[in-house]
Write a structure and sequence with these properties.
The structure is a single chain. The protein is α/β, with parallel strands linked by helices and 494 residues long. Helix content is 24%, strand content 29%. The chain is built from 9 helices and 26 strands. Strands 23-22-26-20-19-16-1-21-25-24 form a 10-stranded mixed sheet, covered by helices on one side. Strands 2-5-8-9-10-11-12-13 form an 8-stranded parallel barrel, surrounded by 4 helices. Strand 10, helix 6 and strand 11 form a beta-alpha-beta unit. Helix 3 crosses helix 4 and helix 7 packs parallel to helix 8.
Length: 494
C-alpha cells in the first residue's frame, strides 16, 4: 500500500492557532477534585493545593488555554460561593454529575493560580441558565476591574489586589440542552442581553464566545449568526465521537475492529461539521472575524466498570490517540475559521490526557499525541496534496487510511504529522517537498501491537512515543513505512 503526499513549501495557507490544542476542566467526577486539586494539606506534592505532577505534565505539552468551570456545571455555578475563606464557602450539590457534595474550595482564585502555573490563558464559562445578568457582570468586575468598586474591593479583601487578565469568556454553555433547553431565537436574544454586560474594564479586552450548535444543528448556527453575529467574537461547536448509541456507547477497552472503524469514521465527521457550519458563518461573516470554537470534543464511551456513572471515567487506548490525531489534522486544515478547540476533558473524565488514583498518575496515549503535535502551535499551515489508499471494513464502507498536517515555523523547519488509521496494515508513505532541498529528517512514532493497548498505573509506558529512524531520502523525496495504527511526526531541516 502506497500513500503519496506532495508539499508546497513556499505556499502558506494560514496560521494554526496554538489554542486549537486547548483543554477543558469541568467540575465533573475527579477532574478538579483529585485531579487538579488535592488541597493544601494533602500529602500529595502540591502548590497551594494544586497537584505539582499534573502541572509539570501539562506544561510539557504547552497547554495554551483552559476552559472552566463547565460544561453543564457552569449553568449551576454561582461564583460567589467559591471565594473567601474555605470555612465560609458553602457546600453545593453537583446535580449534573453524580449528585455529589462539593466544598467549593476550588474557585476563581484557585483557577487563575492554576492558569498562571500552566502559563495558560483562562477561558471562563458564565452562568446563563440559572444565573442573572448582574451575577455575570459582577464576576467580570471582580476578575478584571482595577480601581475602587464593590467587586474590586471584595477581590482585594480575599487576598488579590491586582486584577487578572481574562481574554476568553463564554456566555452560557449548551443553552440548547442542559444550559436551559432554549430555542435558538430565544438564546440569541439572551446572548445579546447578557453579553452587553460582559464589559471591558481597565484595559482588559474580552473575547466573547456565544453558545453554538450541537453537532449538526445548522439552524442554530444560522439563527445565531443572523441575530447576534455582530455581538460575538466566537461561536462554539460541540461534537463527541460515540461509537455506539447514547444508551450503549461501547467499551473503552473491549472492542473489535468494527467498533474501531466506526470510531474513526465518526471522528472524521468533524471535517463535515466544520465545513458546513463554516459555510453558514461565511454567509454573515465573509471576513471570518467570528471564530469557530470547538470547545468540547473527544471520545465518549461507557464508564469503567464499578465506577460512578456520573463521573464519566474511562480508559484511553491507541484508538483514542488516533481520534486525537484525526481531530488535530481537521482543526489545522480549517485554521482560517477554527481558532480554538478544547478536548473533553483534561483529567479523569472522557478522553483525558491524564489519569490519577490518589498519589499515582499516568499519561494516556492521547497525552502523547498532544506532545507530538505541539510543534504545530502558532505555526504556518502549508499547502499539500495527499493521495492515500482507503481503509475498508467491508465492501460498502471506507475511510482514508492516512490523514495529515504539514506546517512550518519561523525557523523554516517543516513538521509533518501523519496518522495511519488501519489497525491491521502498514502503509508506505512517499513524501515530496517542493521548493526546498531536504537536508535532514528526524522522526517520532506512537504505535501499539493491539488496538486496545493502553497505559495503566502498573504499566504506564505501554504506549509511549519512540524515535523513528527508518526514513530514506532519495531525489528530494522522503520515504518510510508506517506500521499499522500509527501516529508519525517528522521534522524536516533544509
Amino acid at each position: 500500500m502506497l500513500s503519496k503526499i506532495v508539499i508546497n513549501a513556499d505556499c502558506k495557507k494560514g496560521k494554526i492557532s496554538k489554542n486549537i490544542y486547548g483543554h477543558f476542566a469541568e467540575h465533573l467526577g475527579r477532574c478538579i477534585y483529585g485531579g487538579f486539586w488535592v488541597g493544601k494539606d494533602s500529602e500529595i506534592p502540591n502548590i497551594d493545593g494544586i497537584r505539582k505532577d499534573v502541572v509539570e505534565a501539562l506544561k510539557k505539552i504547552k497547554i495554551p488555554v483552559l476552559r472552566w468551570p463547565g460544561g453543564c456545571f457552569a449553568d449551576e455555578y454561582h461564583w460567589k460561593d467559591g471565594i473567601g475563606p474555605y470555612e465560609s464557602r458553602p457546600k453545593m450539590i453537583n446535580v449534573h454529575w453524580g449528585g455529589v457534595i462539593e466544598n467549593n474550595h476550588f474557585g476563581t482564585h484557585e483557577f487563575f493560580e492554576l492558569c498562571d502555573l500552566l502559563n495558560a490563558e483562562p477561558y471562563i464559562c458564565g452562568n446563563v441558565g440559572s444565573g442573572t445578568v448582574q451575577e455575570m457582570r459582577e464576576w467580570i468586575e471582580y476578575m478584571t476591574f482595577d480601581g475602587e468598586s464593590p467587586m474590586a474591593n471584595l477581590r482585594a479583601s480575599n487576598g488579590r489586589k491586582e486584577p487578572w487578565k481574562l481574554k476568553y469568556f463564554g456566555v452560557g454553555n449548551e443553552s440548547w440542552g442542559c444550559g436551559g433547553n432554549m430555542r435558538p431565537e430565544y438564546y440569541a436574544d439572551v446572548y445579546r442581553r447578557y453579553s452587553t454586560y460582559v464589559r471591558n474594564f481597565s484595559g482588559n479586552k474580552i473575547f466573547k464566545i456565544a453558545c453554538g450548535p450541537n453537532t449538526d444543528d445548522y439552524n442554530w448556527t444560522e439563527v445565531l449568526m443572523r441575530e447576534a453575529g455582530k455581538y460575538m467574537d466566537g461561536l462554539s461547536l460541540h461534537y463527541y465521537t460515540v461509537p455506539g448509541i447514547w444508551e450503549r456507547k461501547g467499551s473503552a477497552t473491549d472492542f473489535d475492529e468494527k467498533e474501531w472503524f466506526i470510531t474513526m469514521k465518526k471522528a472524521l465527521r468533524m471535517d463535515e461539521l466544520i465545513t458546513k457550519h463554516s459555510t453558514i458563518m461565511d454567509k454573515y461573516d465573509s471576513e471570518k472575524r467570528v471564530a469557530l470554537v470547538v470547545d468540547e470534543w473527544g471520545t465518549w464511551y461507557d464508564v469503567e466498570p464499578g465506577t460512578n456513572p456520573g463521573f464519566l471515567y474511562q480508559q484511553n487506548t491507541m484508538r483514542d490517540a488516533l481520534v486525537a490525531g484525526i481531530h488535530f489534522n481537521i482543526f489545522n486544515k480549517h485554521c482560517d475559521r477554527v481558532k480554538m478547540a478544547n478536548i473533553a476533558q483534561t483529567i479523569n473524565v472522557l478522553q483525558a490526557v491524564i489519569l490519577t488514583d490518589g498519589p499515582k498518575m499516568v499519561l494516556t496515549p492521547t497525552y502523547h499525541v498532544f506532545d507530538m503535535y505541539k510543534v504545530h502551535q502558532d505555526a504556518k499551515l502549508l499547502d499539500f496534496y495527499l493521495d492515500t489508499p482507503e481503509y475498508k471494513i467491508n465492501s460498502e464502507e471506507s475511510i482514508p487510511q492516512v490523514t495529515a498536517t504539514v506546517s512550518t515555523d519561523d525557523s523554516g523547519r517543516i513538521y509533518i504529522s501523519l496518522c495511519n488509521l488501519n489497525p491491521k496494515e502498514s502503509v508506505t508513505v512517499e513524501c515530496e517537498i517542493r521548493g526546498i532541498n531536504v537536508d535532514k529528517v528526524t522522526g517520532t512514532i506512537l504505535t501499539a501491537d493491539e488496538m486496545t493497548a493502553h497505559n495503566t498505573f502498573d504499566n504506564p509506558n505501554k504506549v509511549v512515543p519512540k524515535e523513528f529512524d527508518e526514513i530514506k531520502i532519495a531525489e528530494n523525496k522522503i520515504v518510510m513505512t508506517m506500521p499499522k495504527m500509527t501516529i508519525l511526526g517528522l521534522e524536516v531541516e533544509h
